[in-house]
TrEMBL record:
<comment type="similarity">
    <text>Belongs to the DCK/DGK family.</text>
</comment>
<keyword id="KW-0418">Kinase</keyword>
<dbReference type="InterPro" id="IPR050566">
    <property type="entry name" value="Deoxyribonucleoside_kinase"/>
</dbReference>
<dbReference type="GO" id="GO:0004137">
    <property type="term" value="F:deoxycytidine kinase activity"/>
</dbReference>
<dbReference type="Pfam" id="PF01712">
    <property type="entry name" value="dNK"/>
</dbReference>
<feature type="domain" description="Deoxynucleoside kinase">
    <location>
        <begin position="3"/>
        <end position="135"/>
    </location>
</feature>
<dbReference type="InterPro" id="IPR027417">
    <property type="entry name" value="P-loop_NTPase"/>
</dbReference>
<dbReference type="InterPro" id="IPR031314">
    <property type="entry name" value="DNK_dom"/>
</dbReference>
<dbReference type="GO" id="GO:0005737">
    <property type="term" value="C:cytoplasm"/>
</dbReference>
<keyword id="KW-0808">Transferase</keyword>
<protein>
    <submittedName>
        <fullName>Deoxypurine kinase</fullName>
        <ecNumber>2.7.1.74</ecNumber>
    </submittedName>
</protein>
Length: 144
């Protein structure tokens, strides 16, 4: 990544995996407590160290639960549409809890209920400018 010198965008981050998905599997019984502990210990040893490169910024897209369900339906993926709504409620809550305690890098929250990139792509320009300023500031003070 670093040899290219540019920015990268990821749909998901490694940071959410333990606290959201692995923990949910452990609580649901689809991952043993021992496996969860091993996974969590490895995550902490490999990722939560000063040597692991941190993102410049975490862009967190948020909206209300009903909008999440509407977007799942609009996207039209059969597997997602047929998933038990309780799963989406649990996931929604876990993400909310997770982002409220995330501190590995600055977080920019974007409420996607306030933007309609299909009808007005320009509506995102102020947010893009804000993200650029945060990245620039973070890179100036980063001591990596």
């Amino acid at each position: 990544m670093f040899e290219y010198g540019g920015g990268f965008v990821q749909d998901r981050s490694i940071y959410e995996d333990v606290d959201i998905f692995a923990k949910m599997h452990e609580e649901e019984g689809t991952m043993s407590k021992e496996d969860f502990k091993t996974y969590s210990d490895l995550f902490n040893a490999m990722v939560m160290t000063p040597y692991f490169p941190k993102p410049d910024v975490m862009i967190y897209l948020e909206c209300n639960y009903d909008e999440v369900i509407d977007r799942i339906i609009e996207r039209g993926r059969e597997m997602e549409i047929n998933t038990d709504p309780e799963y989406w409620k649990k996931l929604f809550k876990r993400y909310d809890d997770w982002i409220n305690s995330f501190n590995a890098c600055p977080v920019v929250r974007i409420n996607i209920n306030e933007y309609d990139i299909h009808k007005d792509p320009e509506s995102l320009n102020p947010m893009i400018d804000k993200i650029a300023r945060i990245i620039q500031t973070y890179r100036q003070v980063d001591t990596r």
